[in-house]
Amino acid sequence: MAVAGYNVITPIATDKQRAFACYFCNRQFTRNDLLQVHLRRHESRTLDNTEPQRDPTPPHQGHRDALLRKTNPLWNGGLSPTTFHGRPTFAASNVTELLDPISFEEESSFRNANLQRQESITTLENAYLEAYEAPQIPNQSHRSLMEEFPELNHILKDKGAMQGYFEYGLAYLDVNMPFVHVPTLHILPISSPLLLAICCLGAILSPISDAKQTARIFEQRILLQIQSVILTEPEPSDDSLRVMVIIEYIGHYSSTSEQHRIANLIHEMVIKHVQRKRPLPQSYDAGECDEESLNGRWRTWAQHEAFIRLVHCLFLNNTLHSIHFTYPNLPLASLLKLPLPCSPKLWNAKSPNEWKREISQIKPEEGTRHLQTSMRILLGDAQMSGNRIVREDFEENPFYMYILIQGIASAVIELNQAMPSTSSNAVRLLKSADFKAALAQWWEHFNTIDDKMREEEMTISALISYHFTYILLYMDVNRIAMAAGIPHARDNANPLELEGEAQANSGGEQVYLHLLKVLELCLDEQHKPSLRPLHRGYTEFLTVLIYSVHLTELEYQKIQQPDRHRDRTGEHLQPTTPLDLNTMKIDVHKTMRTVRDRLVCNSWELGQEASQVLDSILGGTSLI
Question: Which of 97, 162, 359, 599 is most deeply packed, by most CB within 10 A?
């Protein structure tokens, strides 16, 4: 039976082991996701023979193929394309001067280096997927899925493909949005809608075009299911909320503009439901009990902890949503009273006995800590002895450090979006100083983690958020987006330091260095490409947009006041030599081309709009 470029071969072994063969070289694999990784190598060699195109007009398939070769063929935002509605010009004065075309020798050198990098990335991804222990979709769950969605049976009947999508989606959630408790999936059967949502996410991440089409079909069907839930369930179940969070995330970062708008509605609805639930702190009592009772306690604990983590992920997504799409930051003050997520060791315990052993290591006070308490410690409102608690959590829990930095970012956004009449300049500047101190303290704690943890995707996301939050203190991202002509941008913010003396000290070299760190982390391709967060591509776009505007400000500041005052937040990023603005101009254009090409290579409509904004800047359109 042939499926999308590969053959499914019936093996002699049990039906749990399905062999997949590559259509090109007949190499066999035991898992569909590994076959997909292997197929990318063939695709890259095919792409390598494509004639490069430099036409800056709206992308067609040939243009995308050429750009896939120029950028990383394995980079997959899983995202998707729209046309850009008539937009006003965006500007950065003399930043937009055109650079000389890349020579044939330079491009050949870049292509060869890219192929070597691709081999390294493929090896990393292969190794990760081999090591990831995703559960098999039980036959009963597969049958239930087909019974609940009979109109999709022409797709669902291929259990091997579904297993591949499921593993990809589950691995992505485990790395970036850890609210599905994998160890108990074999004793807590997964619902059909949640199973389909995870498979939809996995198909979105796949590099195979047929898989992405499958994901669109799944997404449309799940949206109908969500509509039914809204009409029939006054209080959606935890599983229904998980489905909604996954689908809203896909809608925000990998779908059409229409589905993006639907995702906004789902997002607001989920927040309202979650605010009414108000999860309580966990009970960490696993005292003496028989095996059956221990299993029951483990299951109950896992369900409760999964919901706590779901709400934290919703909090993270809400902050990203406000930054990326300039929507008002929804009021989530009640979520600050959320219990903190447990440690990874406890969350990943593979058996009731292992869970019980980890429980015994937990100190009594750890079960009662809240996000609000940790935020107060960082902002200096609590006793400094609390720093020890924060440091201990940092040392073992990337999810926790990500939540904290997004909490600071959320507070900055809320102050930026406050009406000027509600907060005087003096108060705003005082709060700005508090935020800088909190960022400095967060960085101090971050420096205590080991090198291995720094390689985790969640840690990288946290570090990107740290640098971007510093930028938010000085740069009005909303107004920059409006000037760029981004259709969804809204003028609903004021930067913390924009007037009088504050403008003369608007971050200077420090903002520039934080911008560079964000781009360095976003464009780094040493990590598992299919598991990099879908939202990171839009962070790249906003950062390079801010970079071009900030360069103009630096030029003006250099003329007006060459001596910059430096604050404590960026001490670890002090430049070793004076900034060369001409070098920066070249760098911003090269980086902008790279980001533009990466956006063109995905099929996300808002990503395509963003790529056209960068096209207009690179094409020499006058800015501001």
Answer: 599
